[in-house]
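Write out the bound-state structure for zinc ion.
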Amino acid sequence: MNIFSFTAHFDSEESCRNHFKTERDKIGVACKRCGHTHHYWIKSQWSYECKQCRSRTSLRSGTIMQSSNLSFLIWYKTIFLLSTTKKGFSSKEIQRQLGLKRYEPVWSMVHKLRKAMGKRDDRYTLEGMIEMDEGYFTIEASEHDHQTQKAGRGSKTKSNVMVMAESTILEDIETGKVDRQCRYFKAKVLDDHKAEGTDDTFKNSIDGEQTIVFTDKSTS
Ligand SMILES: [Zn+2]
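---
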């Protein structure tokens, strides 16, 4: 999605809320008080009302936007900015771009979104045929300094990193030449070199039963 299609789809607070509601309804809403999952929708309040106990749940409640005072439109614009560039934006830059007065709520929003995006990446698993190897890479861990609002340079260390790639065999129909193509890959920094930790990291990254693993020298 580019900036033009984004503004065409999400041109107002209402269009963002409607989109958010549609997505939330796909997952479903559970009542905070009684756990019931059937609700009325009260549009004037942007809230769900439990059909059993009449308890209300706002559209934000129980989501990443809970307890934020920023509008849905600001959240959507931020999600767009965070996901559209490889380098990403700093909280300070997002605050400037969106013309917001206070830094604190922006920092909090960006922090939550980054965490959620990281989690999503963790849930993602590889499937089919996987090639796996380990290697030593120099990694740089950067810490955002909340006080000075500057991104720290971080310390560079050499670490053992596991690299896993989906490996799909493709045959050229005309020439009969066989090639391998990678659809997705994952990289994970390993805590140690022990086989146990490596096995767990790997198991958490693949889609269980129907997976074939190729690796050359790993003893794990
Ligand atoms: Zn209820």
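---
The chain has a mean pLDDT of 82.
The two ends are 41 Å apart (CA to CA).
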